[in-house]
Design brief:
- The protein has about 150 residues and is mostly helical.
- About 75% of the residues lie in helices and about 0% in strands.
- Helix 3 packs across helix 6.
């Protein structure tokens, strides 16, 4: 019974993502505006500090999910074992969502003003570009999944 629920959940999530796939291209453009936010001149609130402190914890989860997605896609491509496209889509959605969460928490940490400088700026732009590239990869994945385009991603 629970196996059917999981399949139904994956089908529902995938159909929603296919219908809203253009958002995965336009939403990351909003992130560029966040990258221009400078640290607060006044001390940031305790909530900002509290949320920002979770960034080091949350930053490694998207990396694992991106690597897992790559491994699943390679295993499927080289026919090492059968991996459904719905499973790959689900892992990729989790990777994108956790990347957005990690970027949000990192922005809170940056906004406190405790971390500044050239290295911090590079770290920030690297995270924004990762979200943009993951969103573009997911868009192309959904295009191929829905049969719209045969772009090789």
């Amino acid at each position: 019974m629970s196996g059917n629920r999981v399949k139904l959940f994956l089908v529902k999530i995938t159909s929603i993502c296919v219908r809203l796939r253009l958002l995965f291209l336009f939403f990351p453009l909003i992130l560029f505006s966040f990258a221009f936010v400078r640290p607060a001149p006044d001390p940031a609130s305790d909530v900002i500090h509290f949320l920002g402190r979770f960034h080091p914890l949350a930053v490694h989860f998207p990396i694992v999910l991106v690597v897992l997605t790559l491994l699943l896609e390679m295993a499927s491509y080289f026919a090492l074992w059968h991996v459904s496209k719905k499973t790959i889509a689900f892992v990729l959605v989790l990777a994108i969502a956790s990347t957005y969460l990690s970027l949000f928490l990192g922005m809170n940490l940056y906004y406190t003003g405790e971390y500044t400088g050239f290295t911090m700026n590079q770290h920030l732009w690297g995270a924004v570009l990762l979200v943009v590239f993951l969103s573009a990869a997911f868009y192309f994945f959904l295009q191929n999944f829905s049969g719209g385009s045969k772009v090789f991603y």
